[in-house]
Design goal:
By secondary structure, this protein is an alpha/beta fold. The chain has 12 helices and 13 strands. The protein has 2 domains: 154 residues, Rossmann fold, CATH 3.40.50; 188 residues, Rossmann fold, CATH 3.40.50.720. Bound molecules: nicotinamide-adenine-dinucleotide.
Length: 364
């Protein structure tokens, strides 16, 4: 074990003298990020340069001269980008999100330390999932547009009760468990699937096949991995109940969008509530109103009366933004001051499910 996890080589140091201000290149910066990070950095302890651009092979040079790059869900932290960051002398990639499917953590091992914000508000995401579900099944999105046009007709707005319906929750970590509790509050029957069931949770765990076959509503809260990519495809859709409602606030590629579209056209899927989309990275977070959207699948999905799309918005609450900024800066501070970080990510931790070092030291 010691050989595999040798701990940090302190002789090299982490490379920032205590007197130096830590320099952070902040990619994909939005107004709300700048506001929350400026508040968290109100004492001016960090020098933060906000870039609108996403991190990619094309933009990585902007990180020259910085100690840290701070990135979000659609920044590209693939092998080539990691190599370039290491060459530029960047010491740390600080994710300001929980999911890390955009990072090649195996390639980063030994080259670049990666830290993340494992939890900032599971309530923000779980409540958004329920908001999407209620909006969809009670046709609130239609009613809102009608009444603004003084159309008070109720035709076509018939919904259904959530009370008594069976919801399948896929992934019962922090967000999935909050979502399950919300559903129980609505009087729903909750069944759950998790690769690593949380036996103390009091949840009724079933197989994935049973989720597909029994649930009236299925909500996804597991990470995107090779195993979960396209877990919703033509085969799984064929096993689902007619009229099933799918809610995805996790990662877009859990769902094969073409198969989803077919399922909707076949009237098999009753509704889809999507906060994430597998090809979202070039579209979400930008204003394309007045432009022709090139992604035909997304355009077709959005044109469906029973599909609601929000653009990766589930995390966006004041509480979550404040927690994200505080945890990101404290991750960076802990890394440089203590030579370790509780929220470090590495592929070995991922492989064994739990860090064997328990982050008493850096992973390499
Ligand atoms: P978490 O780590 O607390 O929980 C994830 C759960 O998924 C764990 O219980 C884990 O055992 C389970 N899991 C792992 N592999 C699985 C598999 N193959 N099949 C089924 N379950 C599996 O994470 P969380 O904080 O609850 O977040 C869940 C996901 O939500 C994240 O991975 C992220 O992609 C997404 N997320 C989205 C937003 C947003 O704004 N839309 C914000 C935060 C997180």
């Amino acid at each position: 074990m010691d050989e595999m996890y040798p701990g940090p080589d302190r002789s090299k140091g982490i490379g920032v003298e205590a007197k130096d201000m830590i320099k952070i290149a902040f990619f994909d910066a939005k107004e709300y990020d700048i506001a929350s990070f400026n508040t968290a950095n109100s004492k001016g302890e960090y020098e933060i340069r906000f870039y609108e651009a996403k991190l990619s092979e094309d933009t990585v040079k902007l990180a020259a001269g910085f100690d840290v790059v701070c990135v979000f869900v659609n920044d590209d932290v693939s092998a080539g980008v990691i190599d370039s960051l290491a060459e530029l002398g960047v010491k740390l990639v600080a994710l300001r999100c929980a999911g890390y499917n955009n990072v090649d953590i195996e390639h980063a091992f030994g080259k670049m330390h990666i830290v993340r914000v494992p939890a900032y508000s599971p309530y923000a995401v779980a409540e958004h999932a329920m908001a999407l579900l209620l909006t969809s099944i009670r046709r609130i999105h239609k009613a809102y547009i009608r009444t603004r046009d003084f159309n008070f007709s109720l035709n076509g707005l018939t919904g259904f009760d959530l009370h008594g319906k069976c919801v399948g929750v896929v992934g019962t970590g922090k967000i999935g468990r909050v979502f399950s509790d919300i559903c129980k509050g609505f009087g729903m029957k909750v069944i759950a699937y998790d690769k690593f069931p949380n036996e103390g949770s009091g949840l009724e765990y079933v197989s994935l096949d049973e989720i597909w076959e029994q649930a009236d509503i299925i909500s996804f809260h597991c990470p995107l991995t090779d195993e979960t990519r396209h877990m919703v495809d033509a085969a799984s859709i064929s096993r689902m109940k007619k009229g099933v409602v799918l809610v995805n606030t996790s990662r877009g590629a859990l769902i094969d969008s073409e198969a989803l579209l077919e399922g909707i056209k076949d009237r098999k899927i009753g509704a889809a509530c999507l906060d994430v989309y597998e090809e979202e990275s070039d579209v979400f977070f930008h204003d394309f109103s007045g432009h022709i959207v090139a992604d035909d699948t997304l355009a077709r999905l959005i044109s469906m009366p029973n599909v609601i799309v929000t653009s990766h918005q589930a995390f966006l609450t004041a509480e979550a933004l404040s927690n994200i900024a505080d945890t990101t800066l404290s991750n960076i501070s802990q890394f440089f001051a203590d030579g370790r970080c509780d929220n470090e990510l590495c592929y070995k931790c991922e492989k064994v499910g739990k860090c064997p070092q328990e982050h008493k030291a850096l992973c390499f």
